[in-house]
């Protein structure tokens, strides 16, 4: 392991900080030893020093690839103020300044050179770089290589060729957000198969999280949560503009200072409402996900998902807007099988490639399996991001009031059999009616003679509803997209495993929505 004395000395002398934080020292040490790294550090974790300091210490220029011109400008300005020889090449740089920068790079007189991916692949630039002494190559916002995320940049895919062009130069992929799949993508696309991964904790110890299935009157549940927290600042996320407007109006009627926010509103109104939210201490913002970017209010005390988010990453980002000041903040997520159906439908209707759609759907399913699951909330999220050693948080709903779980493998087998015997042609209500052995009232006589008719008569209807929802959340069953969706098999392999009892289905004994909040 590299001696970090010089690195620490640089941190102090150039940047004025006394010591490294988090994983900075480990990342820097690896790069100083000339090896590749992949670093996933939360926002504010101090990613820039991870490449800036080795770039200063190693001979040659450190090349930083970043898609954000504003960020490059800030960093270069800050580095120059600190006396570091830094420059950038982007579309705003004039040709004289450009020539000067290129000369400095060739002579080894630059410590850091920031370029956009377009700039990097501009005619002849890579050939030029091959003649320069290169200290390292850092790829910032590395998650942009992954086409599953919303920040996908096709240019980033080509960055893999740097491996062949600059053998022996340590390369770094750096990002603040990358789940396991994105991490795998970064490795494969950027040819960092052997890079050591440094994943800093995504934990937010002051977040107290809970999730529950939507009760029959979800609005009432939300009002209860808000009323119990009167005078505190909160955010309520809803999926549609209608739902946003309706919820905000209903809260206003209850004398809660609620504001609506969505992309359909005038920019002026949005700015004004965001300002009020930021400045006043008791405002509740009811919003679509259009509200978020650039929101940095320290004392948001709770975040409610009135409709479920898109993925575990989105969930974490959104609840993460609570408790920025470090004091306790609560997150409540209210979800239903219909939310999952909507998420699948949106993915399918989008114009992404089939492959991307499949991943979006998988991410939605992972979210619902997590929400409806039996794992500590914070631990579940952290494991999802690749933190293998994450421990239960001790304060979430699962930790403080562990849901009673039952082995539902047998029930699942019966429900799946019924779906199959009914030719995957009917919806939830009828499958349950069939299992219970109900006749008349909209039940189709045709299926009454099938072997699965009435095989679940000894199990109450709400339990069947729970079993089917659980199988939907796990993706074993799925639902069509019609007005009256039919149940069908979602995962043949899972079904076979359940029939053979190789896969155990554990689920909550009762839907949590039947429980009232404790306080
Ligand atoms: P990000 O990981 O979000 O890109 P930055 O690299 O911009 O984070 O750093 C975030 C802030 O933390 C900056 O103001 C930086 O000066 C500060 N910082 C980073 N590392 C340290 C450290 N070891 N000691 C003190 N401050 C640090
Ligand atoms: Zn927990």
TrEMBL record:
The keyword Nucleotide-binding applies. Residues 218-365 form the Helicase C-terminal domain. GO terms for molecular function: 3'-5' DNA helicase activity; ATP binding; DNA binding; four-way junction helicase activity; hydrolase activity; metal ion binding. It catalyses: Couples ATP hydrolysis with the unwinding of duplex DNA by translocating in the 3'-5' direction. Pfam families: DEAD, Helicase_C, HRDC, RecQ_Zn_bind, RQC. It comes from the Bacteria. Its EC number is 5.6.2.4. Coiled coil: none annotated. GO terms for cellular component: bacterial nucleoid; cytoplasm; replisome. PROSITE patterns: HELICASE_ATP_BIND_1, HELICASE_CTER, HRDC. SMART domains: DEXDc (SM00487), HELICc (SM00490), HRDC (SM00341), RQC (SM00956). The keyword DNA repair applies. Residues 28-196 form the Helicase ATP-binding domain. Gene3D superfamilies: HRDC domain (1.10.150.80), P-loop containing nucleotide triphosphate hydrolases (3.40.50.300), Winged helix-like DNA-binding domain superfamily/Winged helix DNA-binding domain (1.10.10.10). It is an enzyme of class 5 (isomerase). Its cofactor is Zn(2+); Mg(2+). GO terms for biological process: DNA recombination; DNA repair; DNA replication; SOS response. InterPro entries: DEAD/DEAH_box_helicase_dom, DNA_helicase_ATP-dep_RecQ, DNA_helicase_ATP-dep_RecQ_bac, Helicase_ATP-bd, Helicase_C-like, HRDC-like_sf, HRDC_dom, HRDC_dom_sf. Keywords: ATP-binding, DNA damage, DNA recombination, DNA repair, DNA-binding, Helicase, Hydrolase, Isomerase, Metal-binding, Nucleotide-binding, Zinc. Belongs to the helicase family. RecQ subfamily. This is DNA helicase RecQ. It comes from Terricaulis silvestris.
